[in-house]
Amino acid sequence: MSSNRHDAAMCELLKDDPYKTTVFVGALHGMMTAYALARIFSKLFGEVDFAAIDTDRNKYPIGSGRVIFTSIHSYFSAMTANYVFIDCERFSKVVRIE
Questions:
Q1: pTM of the model
Q2: CA-CA distance, 88 to 98, in Å (whole number)?
Q3: How many angstroms from the chain centroid is the CA of residue 16?
Q4: pLDDT digits 0-9 by tens, 57-82
Q5: Measuring CA to CA, which residue among 88, 94, 95, 92 is closest to residue 67?
Q6: pLDDT at 1 over 50
Q7: Phi, psi of 20 (to 5 degrees)
Q8: In degrees, to the nearest 5, what angle opens at C-alpha 83 toward C-alphas 80 and 86?
Q9: Cross-strand bridge partners of residue 81
Q10: For the CA atoms of the chain, what is the radius of gyration?
Q11: pLDDT of 89 over the 70 cut
């Protein structure tokens, strides 16, 4: 199967299902916000539709989150990266992408 046909088949398969363009992000710093996560991932991989930081029952961040991309190409770019080094004013951290 040619690359273009493969891409078209993947796009059709993933159409209208945002969970199939969701990456899970682990080892997040406790000061990371959903807004910052969305901006960072948008700059690195492409347009982000939604980002969230997972919290415990007391709303304290547990070090993981989710990012939903608007395009399958952005999703695959993030998935192939596996890790991202985030260097901010407040912290520096390597985060895992699954």
A1: 0.81
A2: 22
A3: 18
A4: 999 999 999 999 999 999 999 999 99
A5: 95
A6: no
A7: -85, -5
A8: 130
A9: none
A10: 14
A11: yes
Residues in the chain: 98
In b/e form, how buried is each residue of 38-56, taking b as 16+ CB within 10 angstroms? bebbbeebbebeebebeee
Q: Are 82 and 49 in contact (CB under 8 A)?
A: no
Q: How confident is the model at residue 20 (pLDDT cuts 50, 70, 90)?
A: confident
**Distance between CA atoms of residues 74 and 69, nearest Å:** 6
- Pairing mode, if any, of strands 92-97 and 61-69? unpaired
Mean pLDDT across the chain: 88
What are the two backbone dihedrals, phi and then psi, of residue 96, each rounded to the nearest 5 degrees?
-100, 140
Q: 60-66: long-range contacts at Cβ-Cβ below 8 A with a sequence spacing of 24 or more?
A: 61/28, 61/30, 61/32, 63/26, 63/27, 63/28, 63/29, 63/30, 64/24, 64/25, 64/26, 64/27, 64/28, 65/24, 65/25, 65/28, 65/32, 65/34, 65/37, 66/22, 66/23, 66/24, 66/25
